[in-house]
Amino acid sequence: MSSATGIPAQNPAAPGRGEDEPLLGRVGDASQQEGKGIQFNLFIGTAIIAQAGIWIAIWASIFMHDLILFSAHPLLNSAGLLLTTESILILQPTHTAKQKYEGTHVHSALNGASVLSLIAGLVIIEYTKISHGGTHFQSPHAILGLITYTFFIIQALIGITQFYFPVLLGGEAKAKAWYKYHRISGYALLILSLVTVAAATQTDYNKNVLHIRLWAVIVAAVLILTGVLPRIKKQKLGLN
Question: What's the CA gap between 31 and 86, in Å, rounded?
Answer without folding.
Answer: 16
